[in-house]
Amino acid sequence: MSHVITTQVPHGTHDAQGPGDPHDPQGGPGAQGGPGARDTRDPETARPTGDGRGRDRPDEPEAAALLERVKTVVEPALLRAVDRLPGQIRRIARYHFGREDAHGAPIEAPAGKAIRPALVLTAASALAGGPGPAGEAAARAAVPAAVAVELTHNFTLLHDDVMDRDTTRRHRATAWTVFGESAAVLAGDALQALASRLLAEDPHAASARASARLADCVIELCAGQQADTALERRRPGEVTVEEVLAMAEAKTGALLGASCALGGLYAGADEERVRALDAFGRQAGLAFQLIDDLIGLWGDPRRTGKPAGADLAARKKSLPVAAALASGTPAGARLAELYAAEPAPGEDLETMLRAVEEAGGRDWAHAQAADRMARAMHELSRAVPDPEAADGLLALAEFVTRRTS
Amino acid sequence: MSHVITTQVPHGTHDAQGPGDPHDPQGGPGAQGGPGARDTRDPETARPTGDGRGRDRPDEPEAAALLERVKTVVEPALLRAVDRLPGQIRRIARYHFGREDAHGAPIEAPAGKAIRPALVLTAASALAGGPGPAGEAAARAAVPAAVAVELTHNFTLLHDDVMDRDTTRRHRATAWTVFGESAAVLAGDALQALASRLLAEDPHAASARASARLADCVIELCAGQQADTALERRRPGEVTVEEVLAMAEAKTGALLGASCALGGLYAGADEERVRALDAFGRQAGLAFQLIDDLIGLWGDPRRTGKPAGADLAARKKSLPVAAALASGTPAGARLAELYAAEPAPGEDLETMLRAVEEAGGRDWAHAQAADRMARAMHELSRAVPDPEAADGLLALAEFVTRRTS
């Protein structure tokens, strides 16, 4: 297919102040939450773009235009759904989605790029032949599924922010810091119920299957977040790469996969294609996570919005670190020793970072990211053999992983 | 109908050590959670019975036998559903349902009386004509709805226990005290998703409508819990009786109502009857809450498992207290003053209790409970005009409110 692109991922340009970072985040300090926060689950805000750089990359304008179109359709439906919530729960949800400030006054803050709704609608359109009246009709019919996915995503964000003690999200104070932990948990609970409500009331023939699939995804997301919490508590030597990959797949890949799968279901795809769409989203999600972890270690702090070495100082077992720790190399053993020490101000994070690289963590993560994108492309070609029809999904995968090629 | 019974509720026998308490709780200390916890949402464990006293009351044996039969059917289906959860999430859920101890060893602890599943199956059976092959078939078909309701109930318990800092539930340590707050929240999230999953995969013609109704109920439960948290933070004079009643209806009545409604939906009832079933459950739930609040103030501490006056010491704005505070009487003003003072060890709780009574809080709550039960009976006769068919639901309402008559 004409849109299979090389899976070359950026390498050697991620030095802490280097200019070659493929991501162009607009995020100021705080956009990432606390230093202990894992940047999973939210490719769209983890490394946001916005300064216009890189617009010359082939799929960038297409993805941006597509996301804009999706937002125009999905956002009003999303807000209509949120406005069905009662009283204070609605207020918290409207705050979280950037429609109200802490005092209930109307504002218009960014509510995320709507990557997941875009995957739903684009997958539905792709399965119906891509751009054209049939594709557009399929996408329109899938709007309730797109809204349900976005509500689900935001339910997990509300809960994760409480658990991870993250104080900022989308450049604003997280809901729990404004309304309290209980209120944020309850608002998240209500968003999960609202997602289920939208699918239950949708007369579309696929809505029940979509609801079942989304519920399975939520269970996987919970298991992923649970595994993450448990992993961070364990000693460096006790964590395997497979575990960290499985955790990242559950936390980040599962909902991207489900988004594509729901789009496919709404377009009437058979189970085999739905599975391929799911795998496409999962693998793209894993590629995103690997690249995001690389940038967390070697990215430009002026761009990531996090101080250099913050992930190391927080002893995050990100994917490159997990690979280094499990490498069986002297550098890996050295890293394990450094990671076992209590974090202290002024500690030598540069030595740690070098140990990750010497132990092969950086190379491994680059190779894995390339491999995952290759798998994603393979699954996409199975799900949507016509390259033209697959174009939108390809552009979104590119956008999510934001590679240099 | 032959089963309409007088709505006489116990009065004058609730002195702190009095023998006339209509409830026969087996709950030892700790069965009620922390002293600040509101006993809403769980009629089945709030004042458990178990010593065999009171078995001579007319509907008691019927309800007990009915609950036993329901458990035999629902519990295996519930555990099969829970066992579909992954890894640690499954472990937390199995712990919560009394199937495992904190170390994962198998146990058999009580997992509640399954009042809500019983309401689902009994409502389905009642709408299909009551006892007999048709009623039994309707109840059997409604098992997925019964399991979904019980999963939903337990999702809210897991979350509420975290929010209310309750340390015991069903005589065991709450999940969050064993596995941590995040783990308990995630297990609750997963149970909510699992409930939605069961309805989504159920081919029954009513499953989508049931799913929509259950989602609405969850949103109401969240709003109720949110209102409760907010109410407890406000000053005594600022809380109206209507607010406290609305909160109790959302927290306790909504899921009892939804249970009956789901049973009706599964038996093919029209919307009017479904609404009447919902109202029946709600009103019975409110009657339960009123009586439970009365016992929280005037019940025998040896039976409630809480020290006398614990609700007052915690400044709980229970229904009789809210009515007293809003009474406009001198005693109400005195109570407001006492409630505004910081709780202190050795404070005069007896004077407070007398102020509630003098301000009319006790009488009001008794009258309200009687009124709510009357409304419940009225709604039941609309939903199920045949008294024989309505018998099971009536017995369950009696069981939940456990009156002397």
UniProtKB/TrEMBL annotation, chains A, B:
Molecular functions (GO terms): transferase activity
Compositional bias segments (type: Gly residues): 27-36
Keyword annotations of the record: Magnesium, Metal-binding, Transferase
Keyword tRNA-binding: no
Protein name: Family 2 encapsulin nanocompartment cargo protein polyprenyl transferase
Keyword Transmembrane attached: no
SUPFAM superfamilies registered for this protein in UniProt: Terpenoid synthases
Lineage: Bacteria, Bacillati, Actinomycetota, Actinomycetes, Kitasatosporales
Organism: Streptomyces chilikensis
Composition bias type Basic and acidic residues, residue spans: 38-59
Biased composition (Polar residues): 1-10
Family of this protein: Belongs to the FPP/GGPP synthase family.
Region annotation Disordered: where it falls in the sequence: 1-59
Any Pfam family the entry gives: polyprenyl_synt
